[in-house]
């Protein structure tokens, strides 16, 4: 039987990136469908016995739960996902945490709940470039983003409004620009949720 998460897993295995895109909808901070998708993807990676090959394991090594992390913007999202992981026999041992707590760590595969998924607005907190950078860079082999469709439209409705000083180099990346760049990359790896 075909699993609805296989296409996303296969895209991530083939290219190192995947965007598992859920239908557009405004949600509360805890989006149950998106949370379940992150856990189902972690579980599917482990069920299928995906192997990672690298300098540490040149002959390949089957992914273990500790090789996978799920990253979120908010603590309550991470807690909710961790509870779901703990109830899943395949995904027990996968870690769910915030970008702040994952910073400096490295995992074979990361699954990220996109900070702007399901949001009505693009607040400074959710646009912060450092948070997105951490979430999108904790993986050695693959990063799977889970997000609701419509983030590009949200960014278009809430353009960058940071003051610009002419002739002065920017001290840090603009969050709006960082999100646009990541979305452009992910658009090549978009898998609509079945």
Q: How would you describe what is shown here?
A:
This protein has helices at residues 6-15, 32-47, 75-87, 99-102, 124-127, 129-135, 151-157, 175-187, and strands spanning 17-22, 51-52, 61-62, 68-72, 95-98, 107-113, 139-148, 190-192. It has eight helices and eight strands. β4 (68-72), α3 and β5 (95-98) form a beta-alpha-beta unit. α2 (32-47) crosses α3 (75-87) and α6 (129-135) runs parallel beside α8 (175-187). The protein has 194 residues and is α/β, with parallel strands linked by helices. The strands form two sheets. It has a six-stranded parallel β-sheet. The protein has a two-stranded antiparallel sheet with strand order 2-3. Helix content is 38%, strand content 20%. It has a single domain, classed as Rossmann fold, CATH 3.40.50.
Keywords:
194 residues, Rossmann fold
Topology:
Layout: H1 6-15, E1 17-22, H2 32-47, E2 51-52, E3 61-62, E4 68-72, H3 75-87, E5 95-98, H4 99-102, E6 107-113, H5 124-127, H6 129-135, E7 139-148, H7 151-157, H8 175-187, E8 190-192
Parallel strand pairs: 1-7, 1-8, 4-5, 4-6, 6-7
Antiparallel strand pairs: 2-3
């Amino acid at each position: 039987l075909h699993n609805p998460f296989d296409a996303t897993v296969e895209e991530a295995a083939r290219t190192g990136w995947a965007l598992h895109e859920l239908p557009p909808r405004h949600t509360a901070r805890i989006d149950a469908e998106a949370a379940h998708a992150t856990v189902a993807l972690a579980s599917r990676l482990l069920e299928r016995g995906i192997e990672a090959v690298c300098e540490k394991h040149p002959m390949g090594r089957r992914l273990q739960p500790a090789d996978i992390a799920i990253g979120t913007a908010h603590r309550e999202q991470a807690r909710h996902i961790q509870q779901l992981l703990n109830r899943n026999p395949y995904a027990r041992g996968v870690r769910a945490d915030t970008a702040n707590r994952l910073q400096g760590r490295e995992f074979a595969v990361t699954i990220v709940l996109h900070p702007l998924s399901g949001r009505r607005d693009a607040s400074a907190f959710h646009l912060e470039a450092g948070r997105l950078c951490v979430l999108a860079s904790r993986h050695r082999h693959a990063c799977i983003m889970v997000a609701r469709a419509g983030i590009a439209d949200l960014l278009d409705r809430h353009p960058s409004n940071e003051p610009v000083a002419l002739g002065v180099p920017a001290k840090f990346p603009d969050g709006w620009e960082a999100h646009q760049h990541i979305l452009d990359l992910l658009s090549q790896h978009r898998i609509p949720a079945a």
